[in-house]
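Regression test case RT-17, inverse folding.

Input:
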């Protein structure tokens, strides 16, 4: 065990030496997003769909850069940081969800699935990284990530490539489903669907719809930006 810890510490030391952590906003060392830059980030002001909450404005240059680096430049660690920020920003909403009786079971945190092709190219699902950072702020008795309950049954064009709202909504309609063996896990449960960005709200709303259809007691969507 001690050898493993030493090896891990050495690996982190080497990573920090060749790829030092810098603030996404100002390049300050040893911080992914320093307090000064975070204080300047614009909150989400545009309306989202019912029961979907976004924290930041995607047009903000720092947030846009963070999500871009996470999704397209293999900086997976930014997902965990954004997840931690998401939790801290929505602590009141989470507290309200905890009051909903789910037979003493934890709230299920469900990341939005991405296509197999994009997962293969990227090496990870950014929504899972965000969800993992999100639940680190508490314990497994309260929140639990479940990334195998909902799956994408139809491959579609990326939402970012579609500008028309109606076409975006059409593009995600009916593309998700729940594995039959997992449906009993949903009944009577409280669920949080997590994604990096919501624009029309269509993607999160589709997953919320099938969770409710499978018997979830309460479903809400959280996104880093809108």
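Golden output:
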């Amino acid at each position: 065990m001690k050898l493993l810890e030493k090896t891990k510490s050495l690996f982190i030391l080497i990573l920090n030496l060749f790829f030092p952590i810098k603030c996404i906003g100002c390049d300050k060392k040893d911080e992914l997003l320093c307090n000064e830059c975070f204080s300047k980030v614009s909150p989400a002001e545009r309306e989202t769909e019912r029961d979907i909450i976004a924290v930041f404005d995607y047009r903000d240059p720092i947030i846009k850069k963070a999500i871009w680096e996470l999704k397209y430049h293999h900086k997976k660690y930014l997902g965990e940081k954004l997840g931690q920020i998401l939790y801290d920003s929505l602590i009141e909403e989470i507290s309200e969800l905890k009051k909903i009786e789910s037979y003493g079971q934890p709230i299920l945190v469900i990341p939005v699935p991405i296509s197999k092709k994009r997962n293969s190219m990227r090496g990870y699902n950014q929504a899972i990284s965000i969800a993992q950072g999100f639940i680190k702020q508490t314990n497994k008795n309260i929140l639990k990530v479940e990334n195998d309950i909902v799956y994408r049954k139809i491959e579609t064009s990326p939402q970012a490539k579609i500008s028309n709202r109606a076409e975006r909504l059409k593009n995600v309609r009916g593309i998700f489903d729940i594995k039959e063996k997992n449906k009993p896990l949903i009944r009577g449960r409280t669920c949080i669907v997590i994604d990096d960005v919501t624009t029309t709200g269509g993607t999160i709303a589709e997953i919320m719809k099938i969770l409710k259809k499978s018997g979830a007691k309460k479903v809400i969507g959280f996104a880093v930006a809108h």
